[in-house]
Records
---
Amino acid sequence: MIKHGSLDDLAAFAVVARERSFTHAASELGLSTSSLSYAIKRLETRLGTRLLQRNSRSVATTEAGEQLLRTLEPALANVRRALDDLGRARDVVSGTVRITATRQAYETVIRPVLADFSVAHPHATVEVLIEYGFRDIIADRFDAGIRLGEKLQNDMIALSVGPELRMAVVASPSYLAGHSVPASPQDLTQHRCINYRLMAAGNLYAWEFERGDQKLEVKVTGPLTFNEPELMLDAALDGLGVAYVLEQDAKPFIARGELVRLLEQWTPPFPGFFLYYPSRQQMAPALEAFVLALRKRRPAKTTGRAAARRQ
């Protein structure tokens, strides 16, 4: 016999097991961590077995918890689909759309539509995680991702959601006062360059250049390495070296003379941001509404492959 609150406790357990964190799960569920902890203990007492191993740093499912989760997740997914269908019937969009995006993608693509989306769909929630490496959005339970892209992967739907972009090689006037202006991309190997580390791949990003039929990748060296483009731009503004950043980020500083653009003829436009998501027969209502909001803002091309080149 199912007692009152059992289904809520089971759903709470599934979120904790997925997030591997009471803090993150409590935030998602809108509960305090103490209330959530009590719900899990209540469920474990009712079932007579421990479902989660937890300490001050981590949470993991026990063998019994993993077995329960394998049975529980498909059932909860069916419940969510049934609720989505009811929402569609009432023409009400609800649920959460989880998106992984870079900060530039958030500022360029997501932020401009949030106000109108929230007004149009007050029962829907948008959750954005800012990161720069590509994520397995299926394994990590994201609904979609937004990244820069020229090459497209299989088994994803990709939607162009922004204009073409350009990279810019920049340095401050104070840096150039003590260094010669590079005449070609290869000259950058003689400069103090600000590197970008690709966290997912674990290596340094080779700067990409193209002019006509010529395509080059230059591995630069320098005293600084970052995993966030904003910090690279800051370092260039501080006169610490040459940076390779998005033109849109550097443009205001170039206009004010705080940065000087270099090798402009070697950085042509390339396809901009893509929103990519799994190819499914039925899209969740919240994601469907969010995609529609992006389409209204900018008519976009869709492809059956997902974006994957620059991070």
Note: The chain is about 40% helix and 25% strand.
---
Amino acid sequence: MTAGVTDPVLKGFWAWYEQLSDAARAQATGPLMNKLRAFLLRPFVRAAIAAGPSTFTMSTILDEGGLLLARLPKGVLGEETARLLGSFIVASAWQAAARRAGLPEDRRPDAGLYVDECQNFLNLPYPLEDMLAEARAYRLSVVLAHQNLAQLPPDLREGISANARSQVIFSVSPEDARILERHVAPRLSAHDLAHLGGFQAAARLVAGGAETAAFTLRTQPLPPPVPGRARLIRRAARAAHGGGTAVTAPPPGTAGTDPRLRPAA
């Protein structure tokens, strides 16, 4: 594996490593392996990270059109594993957007990055506030959703306040309402923000390059789920990428005619 290495830094590392005793090698790699074992012990993570070349690239999704949904339940993966894997995905999306610097602006299609519980997935090798400031130039819309301001470190909170110019605020605590009031005043007050109803939100948006006055709006609840559809989609995905019999999920709102696709009771 190292015979074809030409990078002088890598060659120097492996030359140093080969001279170590087994005990010294274990000491040198121990901290990294402890992290990796906890990360790769989960079959889903191992299949996603260490199963060979990916069937898609983030650049293809952003530049040619596509939709990537990443489900990272902390209760299943573990908090640290979900946080690290989510940060990988966010970093990959940003790197794919930054590659657009080599494209003329009119050839950069609009793309969006939506991060729920964003405070868990922002362990990045560069300041997020820089990413937010530069994303518009690459035509990447970044939507960060979180529960309360205390979840964000002060520098990140200030970076979001300065660069996330369009804000949608659902009902918040009185403490957060007092801080957020300055973004929606004088149309709305801290009392208004703390007493929003169900499916109601306050918004302050940027339109035509200028900030508009704050206003309230109502969102619509999601339609009822199709029974069994999530299970069928997962089965089809595993069959397509991990072996087994492939089945096609029925259109939304239907059960299909294939008995393998009938929703569970």
Note: The chain has eleven helices and seven strands.
